[in-house]
Amino acid sequence: MPECWDGEHDVETPYGMLHVVIRGAPKGNKPAILTYHDVGLNHKMCFNSFFQNEDMQEITKHFVVCHVDAPGQQIGASQFPQGYQYPTMDQLAGMLPTVLQHFGFKSIVGIGVGAGAFVLAKFALIFPDLVEGLVLLNIDPNGKGWIDWATTKLSGLTSALPDTVLPHLFSQEELMNNTEFVQNYKQQVNTVNQFNLQLFWNMYNSRRDLEMNRPGTVLNAKTLRCPVMLVVGDNAPAEEGVVECNSKLDPTKTTFLKMADSGGLPQLTQPGKLTEAFKYFLQGMGYMPSASMTRLARSRTASLTSGSSLDGSRSRACTQSDSSEGVAQLSHTMEVSC
Questions:
Q1: Are 11 and 41 within 8 A, CB to CB?
Q2: What is the pTM for the complete model shown?
């Protein structure tokens, strides 16, 4: 891939055009870090402050970054014509192999939020050989039932679109406090083409279940094969869905990160702490040298080393709770207090 890929691109896929932003250049055989944003956002609104964090820039020195905007959600996007059929969630996932092929990426580590997390999980289920790891924030693996679907439709008829989308992005406490942060994002949601956003919102709310089951729970269970870090803020609207997703994944490959005081969008409210966890996740996959790990990661690694004899067969470092009891039970939940 030539250096000139760095910048903005429109990539033609079997299901329509995708706006893609590349930062940096490939580093050897390392995977690309590919991001996918949530409904109501685009890559800038969803990830800019996270990737501009000083510690995150230390990580991105080692990787090329590929930001994907869902069709029609980027800044300045043209409005889709009346009658345009927005891609299904399966088709959104099916667009990504073309992106990887276009830029010559052999594999990715994905970071997805909400709807973007759903798309990346679907992508990893369909194309497991292209995904080395996933960080999934606020993922809800369940499709909408008829009652939920009808409630969403009714809300759309009685409320302006940003007011309908905001409860998906923020906790009730954040909305009630109506912080400057929430007000700022309400204004930013208005900058996304509202017709296009409505199509994406409708498609996300028409999604079917991610067909995953934890190995051993059902015959021929299918789940994500790569290492996964699930992330959710305490009391976030997606908390129940993320817990449900955790129950469907292989516990030997899954880390569950529940962040206190981070609200509905932890990558924006607690970018430093999430970066720290991401760095540790990459180090567990063998990509980040231990010398560049932060204090938290080093202390957790030391804790793991002291308990490693409990399970010598494990091939990958997993995030544990700080307590000795957590290490003894090989718990995969890490509570982060902010």
A1: no
A2: 0.85
